[in-house]
Amino acid sequence: MRSVSTWSSSSLSSRCTVISKISIVTPVYNDRRVERALGSILSQECSPEIETIVIDGGSTDGTLEVLEKYRARLTCLVSEKDRGIYDAMNKGIARATGDVVGILNADDCYADNRVLADVIDRFSDVSVEVCYGDLVYVDRNDRVVRYWRSGPYRNRNFYLGWMPPHPTFFVRRQLYEKYGVFDTGLPISADYELMLRMIVGQRAKPAYVDRVLVRMAVGGNSGRSVRQIVRANIEVARAWRKNRLAGGLLVPILKPARKIVQFFSRP
Known about the structure:
alpha/beta; Spore Coat Polysaccharide Biosynthesis Protein SpsA, Chain A; globular
């Protein structure tokens, strides 16, 4: 007869935690597609409070008019010049008060209205410090052209060129306070460096949400040209050196190679 493990109330409380608020930071600059991003945040069905923080870089193309329509439903709206997207993210994180912080770019959106509920469910385990999921790239007609399946985390993943898609990456706010925010000295790959720092350098425990969490518009900060791709991978090498991590010499080669598979995969 197979034995069944049971938990006492005391052991259960040591494993579980209640998330009372989740903060979502959206950086934007001259991108009226932010309306779709905000719509996907505000339509989420989850019990904790959702804190919606928008950091605008001083848009001049009508984006502010779009944001004004949502002002009453936003927790925080800041519009001022910044030093790039990662500076804007840092400003948003500094204003966040939620237990968990996620970042959704202006040209992206959540895959459906249950994304944050699934994320919060992962953080109900008190040992989980970060979580991530899958992402699809979509064209102007919202057709999937590329599928980024992350898969469960294994200790060797980063050494083989792996990284989770940053728009699906959620972090307990206390980790930002403890380990720092985005390094704006890496203008293309600061997201990679932050995830490397937290998961490999500081050994934050990750959890995988086995489904598509974000629909991302084709393009992005690190994939617009061959020159930028080269610069991004130079920054990847710098990220390993900055965190004094050995074993990452082949990562700048392996990382772009892994993207090829994404064009032939479908969710």
